[in-house]
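re the bet — no i am not wrong, look at it urself. input seq straight from the record:
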Amino acid sequence: MSALMIETEQFSYAVHYSSRRRSVALQVKQGQLTVRAPLGYSLAEIKALVLQKQQWVLKHLQRVKLQTKPQWLAEQQLPLLGTTLALTRQRGEKSAVLYSKDNLTIIVSSRVQPQRYQKVLLTLLQKWYQQQAFSWFTQRVLYWQNKMNVRSGNILIGSWRTKWGYCKSTSELGFNWRLMMAPEWVADYVVVHELAHLKHLNHSARFWQLVHEYYPQAEDAKAWLRHNQHLLEL
């Protein structure tokens, strides 16, 4: 596969040629436009296509600029199911996380070297979120499965980048701990979504009908996750 960079007045983009492609595709990812084309496709045709799609490209590039990762630690606050906790950081004899109603105190052991401080801090925070997630999702699965007349198996908490949850044919359910940083009604949608897979292990029309039957705001929740995923990062 070969590639080259093209500059325009408003943005630049990379062109990747591949013998395996049969059509041209435009992709905006991480603030960069990439054009993937089959071998033999002329550069003039690619430039004409990008010009034709320029408004679409600018719209998506601007959206990426607006989706700046929040600086939760620098701002000394953390999101939890639609609320905001004040964050306090301390040094102490032993590393620990202390949670009160509106405050989270992270104690990093004084034995931790300065170069490892940030990594230990993030590890403590993630473990705390995972504990909160297991407790919360266990309760919500119990609530929704009684309403939907289904029965789940084990519940696991994961740390994926590309999915919010899963349902296996064994009835095991998995949920992403980052959903604890989203509003409660959004995390609740993921519970209903995965429980619906216990009846329909696919994304058929019957599956979506079941999801919307029990969760009418499902489309709003999907849109929130699509547009605000960048907020769910430490």
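see?? The chain has a mean pLDDT of 90. told u. also Residues 2-66 form one domain. so pay up
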